[in-house]
């Protein structure tokens, strides 16, 4: 795959000295889905706004499809579709006219077949004659996506696209995103729903305090940083972990009737056999055991803990 979006030493400072972006470097490949995760105030929206020309960078450079966002603004911006967090639509316009108008803003010729296809994929075709003010919040967010796709962008930014959307609509949107990726559209997704990143992303980027902490293949990240927990259930509750088991660094479950052991699945020895032997030697009787793989959310929390939000 070739690089479609290149960000080099991008910085954004505001009056008063606040640095929202601190030398961001990022290369995004054509046709991938990159999930950008970060706590509130991490710089996600500032980064997207700068790439899309809404905010001017203090320094650094960004190219989209080889076009500089400053010296070749029109060409670069034409390649980008943006679905913002905020729902800001003309309430008395119809769905159809709203989407048509967005296409016209980019100087694209009329293409009724394309507009119809977009609206049908987003389950908006039956609402095409409805005024925006008549739509639910979830449907309005779908209109934002339709607007962003109307000029056939090659890079699509989805800034918290499913915020306030019910579970059913959220799953529908995931399917739309997958179809877009299959058609060759590059997608950069910011989300507070980490399960979205875990379900859809090819790569995961983590940003905190205006800096990119890492960008890595999702599967590699989870293999490298993911851990497993072994939960040992006991037949009788205990008040404290026996001293004889101190070397295993166990955590006592809230109910007092389970012991939790964290281990690295990639290690040569997990220590599970020794643990179970020592549990039996301590006079504890097991009723069951279970394991849990750490999720992307666990990894994300570990990465940003201690960072400024």
TrEMBL record:
SMART domains: AAA (SM00382). Keywords: ATP-binding, Nucleotide-binding, Transport. The keyword Lyase does not apply. Residues 5-234 form the ABC transporter domain. Pfam families: ABC_tran. One of its GO terms (molecular function) is ATP binding. The keyword Nucleotide-binding applies. Transmembrane segments: none annotated. InterPro entries: AAA+_ATPase, ABC_transporter-like_ATP-bd, ABC_transporter-like_CS, ABC_transporter_ATP-binding, P-loop_NTPase. This is ABC transporter ATP-binding protein.
């Amino acid at each position: 795959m070739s690089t479609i979006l290149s960000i080099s030493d991008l910085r954004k400072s505001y009056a008063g000295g606040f640095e929202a972006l601190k030398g961001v470097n990022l290369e995004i490949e054509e046709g991938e889905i990159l999930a950008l995760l970060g706590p509130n105030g991490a710089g996600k929206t500032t980064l997207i706004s700068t790439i899309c020309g809404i905010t001017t960078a203090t320094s650094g450079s960004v190219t989209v499809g080889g076009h500089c966002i400053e010296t070749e603004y029109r060409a670069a911006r034409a390649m980008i579709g943006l679905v913002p967090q905020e729902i800001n639509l003309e309430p008395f316009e119809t769905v159809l006219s709203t989407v048509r108008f967005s296409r016209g803003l980019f100087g694209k010729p009329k293409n009724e077949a394309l507009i119809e296809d977009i609206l049908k994929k987003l389950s908006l075709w039956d609402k095409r004659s409805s005024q925006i003010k008549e739509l639910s919040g979830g449907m309005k967010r779908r209109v934002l996506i339709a607007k962003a796709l109307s000029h056939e962008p090659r890079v699509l930014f989805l800034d918290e696209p499913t915020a306030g959307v019910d579970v059913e609509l959220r799953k529908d949107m995931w399917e739309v995103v997958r179809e877009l990726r299959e058609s060759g559209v590059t997608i950069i997704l910011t989300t507070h729903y980490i399960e979205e990143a875990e379900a859809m992303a090819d790569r995961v980027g983590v940003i905190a305090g205006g800096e990119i902490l890492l960008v890595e293949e999702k599967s590699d990240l989870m293999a490298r940083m993911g851990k497993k927990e072994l939960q040992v259930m006991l037949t009788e509750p205990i008040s404290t972990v026996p001293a004889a088991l101190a070397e295993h660094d166990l955590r006592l479950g809230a109910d007092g009737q389970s012991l939790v052991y964290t281990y690295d699945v990639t290690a040569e020895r997990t220590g599970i056999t020794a643990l179970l032997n020592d549990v039996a030697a301590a006079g504890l009787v097991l009723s069951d055991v279970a394991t849990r793989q750490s999720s992307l959310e666990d990894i994300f929390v570990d990465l940003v803990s201690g960072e400024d939000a």
